[in-house]
Amino acid sequence: MNWKYEKGRIYSVDENAELMAQATFVFTDNAEVDIDHTYVSPALRGKGVAGKMMEVVAEYLKENKLTAKATCPYANAWLKKHSASHADIISKNIDDDATACKMDGKH
After folding, report:
1. N or C: which end of the chain has fewer CB within 10 A?
2. Cα-flanking dihedrals φ and ψ of residue 84, to 5°?
3. Rounded CA gap, 17 and 86, in Å?
4. Can you give the CATH number for the domain in which 64 is found?
5. Number of domains the chain is built from
6. Considering the entire predicted model, what is its pTM?
């Protein structure tokens, strides 16, 4: 997938500019972000795209010296599952907020 980067958003679109996958995050403080939403097109679900997207997000965080917590349930679970290999990007505040993805009509 060809990933595009915007402030607070990493995403990929297909040749028709249709959104195929996306992670959004808000900058909080102290070089920390809250991953508040992940999305994968129904056509790509079950193919490992969400995990690959989170690897891209993790690399972005490392490159930009950021840490993350996640109110998005998928991102929160992914960060915790990969805490050994990505300890440097996981916020000490990972468990502070309830998880609940924002809804934008793309589920």
Report:
1. C
2. -70, -45
3. 31
4. 3.40.630.30
5. 1
6. 0.87
